[in-house]
Amino acid sequence: MNIIVNAFEELKNNISKCNNCGLCETRNNIVFGEGNIYSPLVIIGEAPGEEEDLTGRPFVGKAGELLTNILKAAGFNREEIYITNVVKCRPPENRDPDQSEQFACRDYLESQLLLIRPKIIITMGNVATKSILSTTKGITSIRGQLFDWRGIKLFPMFHPSFLLRNESRAKGSPKDLTWQDIKYIKKLYDEVKNIKNDD
Ligand code: URA
Ligand code: URA
What we know:
By secondary structure, the chain is an alpha/beta fold. About 45% of the residues lie in helices and about 15% in strands.
């Protein structure tokens, strides 16, 4: 096994024993993340929900189904990218993970990002975007814009759970804006995917 694969295995193993915050007391499984660890694109959600907690896989519930479909419609295979969350354990009742829980999980997420070294990161929803960009600005005002996270392009988008609560496809609706956003990202992805990291 190569170094990156080993490092991912070790990290996952460490997280499975993690008790850095109270979420460990109620989890069934950690949800580490899945997909292509060499991907130029990483998608970061908020936290596992019920089905994710039961299966140990990210985005496999209703929001996950929508995410998978949005990706497919834009020409991505879910398997070609890497998908994870800000926190790796389910918050009870699906509440937002609090600041201390996000902080307790931060090194794990950063390790994943620094090992993968993607060209593009998508943060989905308010929690992930605010957590990683250290901003207080709301997702509605900053989605669809490129930011910089340690030399990596970071692009906030609406969370698929939010889209499930906002069915309209009218021009300017969250679903319409998300469709513009993912098409933009696919174009950018195709431009940057073959550029090598310089090392
Ligand atoms: N919502 C998230 O933010 N992450 C998941 O893994 C599932 C639902
Ligand atoms: N609030 C969120 O947390 N996420 C969204 O995508 C929209 C509103």
